[in-house]
Design a protein that fits this description.
Strand order of the largest sheet: 1-2-4-5-6-7-8-9
Number of helices: 11
Organism: Phenylobacterium koreense
Bound molecules: ligand C2E, magnesium ion
Protein name: Diguanylate cyclase (GGDEF)-like protein/PAS domain S-box-containing protein
Shape: globular
Number of strands: 9
Structural class: alpha/beta
Largest sheet: 8 strands, mixed, barrel
Strand content: 15-25%
Length: 282
């Protein structure tokens, strides 16, 4: 875009953009070595069975606290970690750490870990996952990996092959943020996903919005037809939980149940049966 302004265009960026660019550069620089300096941590957010109110799994969510910059938002630094390729090392660390945490949970509680496209481009994703499972002795069927459709957007064949190998290890594969991309539906017949996680943007306006109802219902019918189980993201009210349960969503995740919490708090949550929202009479 700067080029389009032609020769002699000294104002390459909008005033605000310059600052933004500097900030991104500073973040990128700070990201190098953040793993070594032990600046990352993992929080765990429960996914709750909408019928029983019981915790079925936790999703591992990365957090970064820089000594000067403070806490940096994942939506801000994960794309940078992705661009720089640093996510490969960080991702391997998350897998090992989260599997270790999960290996101490009761047998029926699963772990879900997000994978980014850069991890698929790096050789060795499958062996990284296998090593994390072996090292921590977490049973393979207790690990779920979440991908977004961006993984299937490019290098489609190669990544489908990797997904198939991951599946062969015995782990489950979930399609994350369903509905937000270019062609969410298009990917469903390319790979037999174990789970679809409906993006929270569709849950947000429930139960008030007619459009919201229509989408939630249509996705449920489709998933049922395909034999894929459904998790709804961003469940914040019990009215939303009740509606989603009624429409056939088996799990919910969101602030209604719990925010992402530390490993210790997660274990305490498991101990206490979740009665955070009224389970309606059958
Ligand atoms: P995601 O995988 O879709 O994770 C769900 C995000 O929604 C999390 O944001 C979570 O804190 C937030 N959330 C959960 N419940 C609610 C709710 O009721 N209301 C609202 N408004 N938000 C809710 P977070 O932790 O900031 O992560 C953002 C994104 O960053 C994640 O979206 C995921 O794509 C990515 N991410 C996080 N951790 C990792 C990681 O370890 N590896 C990779 N590759 N990506 C990660
Ligand atoms: Mg996720
Ligand atoms: Mg998600
Ligand atoms: Mg999301």
């Amino acid at each position: 875009r700067a080029k389009a302004e032609g020769k002699g265009a000294f104002r390459l960026f909008e005033p605000g953009m310059d600052e933004q660019l500097k900030h991104r550069q500073a973040l990128k620089l700070a990201l190098h070595g953040a793993l070594k300096r032990d600046e990352f941590s993992i929080l765990y957010q429960p996914m709750v069975d909408l019928s029983s109110g019981r915790i079925r799994a936790f999703e591992a969510l990365l957090r970064w606290r820089h000594p000067e910059l403070g806490a940096v938002c994942p939506t801000e630094f994960i794309p940078l970690a992705e661009e720089t390729g640093l996510i490969v090392g960080i991702g391997a660390w998350i897998l090992r750490e989260a599997c270790r945490a999960a290996s101490r949970w009761p047998d029926d509680i699963c772990l879900s870990v997000n994978l980014s496209p850069a991890q698929f481009r790096s050789a060795g994703l499958v062996s990284t996952v296998r090593a994390a499972l072996t090292e921590t002795q977490l049973p393979t069927d207790r690990l779920q990996l979440e991908i977004t459709e961006s993984v299937l957007l490019r290098e489609n064949r190669a990544n489908l092959q990797i997904l198939t190998e991951l599946r062969r290890l015995g782990v489950k594969i979930a399609l994350d943020d369903f509905g937000t991309g270019y062609s969410s539906l298009g990917y469903l017949h390319q790979f037999p996903f174990d789970k679809i996680k409906l993006d929270r943007s569709f849950v947000q306006n429930l139960p008030g919005s007619r459009e919201g109802h229509a989408i939630v219902t249509a996705v449920a019918a489709m998933a049922q037809g395909l034999g894929i189980s459904l998790t709804a993201e961003g469940v914040e009210t019990s009215a939303q939980a009740a509606l989603l349960r009624e429409r056939g969503y088996s799990e919910g995740q969101g602030y209604l149940f719990s925010e992402p919490v530390s490993e210790g708090q997660a274990r305490r949550l498991i101990g206490h049966a979740m009665t955070v929202y009224p389970v309606s009479p059958a």
